Structures are given as C-alpha cells and as structure tokens.
Amino acid sequence: MRVPRMNGPTLADLVGTGPLLLDFDGPVCSIFAGYPATRVAAELVALLDVEGIAMPPEVRSEGDPLAVLRWVGESCSHDLTLAVEDALCAAELRAAVVAAPTPFGREVILGAHARGVPVAVVSNNSAVAIEAYLTAHDLAAYVSPIIGRPYADPARMKPDPGTTLDAVRALAAAPESCVLVGDSLTDIDAARAAGVAAIGYANRAWKVDAFSAADIVITSMGDIVVALSPVSPVSPKAE
C-alpha cells in the first residue's frame, strides 16, 4: 500500500531517476531476526557492568543496542565508546549471518540496477556487517557506496544528516535528486535535514501515521519494485 501526501510526488516521481539510498535494517533485511537486538543490547550492558559503569534504569533495560551505544558516546569515555563499538560490530557480524531478508528488498536493488539507478546503503549499522550480508546474498556488486555507522562516533548516526550527505557526495549527486528509504523516524529526519526526498517504509501499522513527514509511505518494498518496473504489473503480494 502506498500513502501519498496530498499534492505530493508519486512513488514513480521519486524512484527510477536519481540515486536510491536505502537504510539497511528494515528495507534490505531484518539484521537482528536470528540474533535478537535485545540480546545484543544486554551483552553491551554486561560489558558496561564489567567496567563498573553506573547506568540509569532505562539504559539497563534498553532493548536497542544502538541506543546503548549512543548513551555510552554521550556519557562515557572515548575508550569505553571504542570498546562498546567494537563489541557491537562483532555482534552485528554474527547477526548478519542469520539476518532475514526483507520481502522485495532484493528485487528493489536488482530492479534499480536494471534501470541504471545507483543504489547506496546509508545505515546506523556497521559497514562491515552490511558488506557481509550483501556479499552473502550476492548483492554487493549492485550497491555502492555503503555508508555505515561512523566508527565510535554515535553522535553522527542518523538522524544526523552527515552519513546521508556522505552518500550523496560519493555518488556525485545533488541532494534533491536522491531519495532515502527508511523504516524509522531517524531516517526521515536525516533525509529532511540532508535535503533528500524521504520514503517511509511502514513495516509496522503504527508507522503509517507516525511517518507523516515522509513524502510517501509504503507498507511493502514491493511497491518500489512496481515503480521501478518498465511496465506496470499487478502489485506483488507480500510474502
């Protein structure tokens, strides 16, 4: 399902011409499907416990490892941020092996390549994990650049626009010619701050309304496959 904004662009207006920037966890795969994010977050908290770091209750119970890393970057030493970063990178590499492909994520990448549309990945996950997943799924040749999480610098993760702009520059493109597809508010905020169009991938029902700042909201990556197709086939059914 596509949810265009009143008097806004259509999905065909946004894809099929300029570069397509994809968030990784969501539009391409569910990286923590086989190695749960809650487990990774707990492992990072355990590392902090070993170091004797006092944490507020909300960090101790945090289920998102990226949120734990962000707190460490804001509240702890750079050496500890490096240690947590390295632990998270290692966990993401393990998770990438058992990640679950997003329905139609692969087809979006291959469809864009067939149209001559550059595809980049811009993610808060580590570049090494992204590269490992794409290589294992025979997609690495179709994605460049891969812009992952700035190493041990969590303040530059999305919603900061820096990594999105890094991808735009690497593609030698104008921001307004690009579109970012993401499944979180941080993706949409980063796109807006970088001056690129935003497609909200609402893989949960509550996100349809939450993504009001996006140019278009989709509930299946299959909608992008259709928009990239040189013909207009029947919309693919969700897997």
Written account of the structure:
This protein is α/β, with parallel strands linked by helices and 239 residues long. 44% of the residues lie in helices and 12% in strands. The chain is built from eleven helices and nine strands. The chain has helices at 11-14, 37-50, 57-60, 65-75, 78-97, 105-115, 127-136, 162-170, 185-194, 207-210, 222-228, and strands at residues 2-4, 20-22, 29-30, 100-101, 119-122, 146-147, 179-182, 197-201, 216-218. Strands 1-9-8-7-2-5-6 form a seven-stranded mixed beta sheet, with helices on both faces. Helix 10 links the parallel strand 8 (197-201) and strand 9 (216-218). The chain starts with a strand and ends in an 11-residue tail after the last helix.
Largest beta sheet: strand ordering: 1-9-8-7-2-5-6
Counted beta strands: 9
Strand portion: 5-15%
Major pleated sheet: 7 strands, mixed
Low-pLDDT runs of 5+ residues are 232-239
The CATH class designation of the largest domain is Alpha Beta
The CATH homologous superfamily of the largest domain corresponds to: HAD superfamily/HAD-like
Identify the overall geometry: globular
Key phrases:
seven-stranded mixed sheet; single chain; Rossmann fold; 239 residues; alpha/beta
How is the topology of this model organized?
Elements (H helix, E strand, L loop, with lengths): L1 E3 L6 H4 L5 E3 L6 E2 L6 H14 L6 H4 L4 H11 L2 H20 L2 E2 L3 H11 L3 E4 L4 H10 L9 E2 L14 H9 L8 E4 L2 H10 L2 E5 L5 H4 L5 E3 L3 H7 L11
Helix pairs in contact: 2-4, 2-5, 4-5, 5-7, 6-11
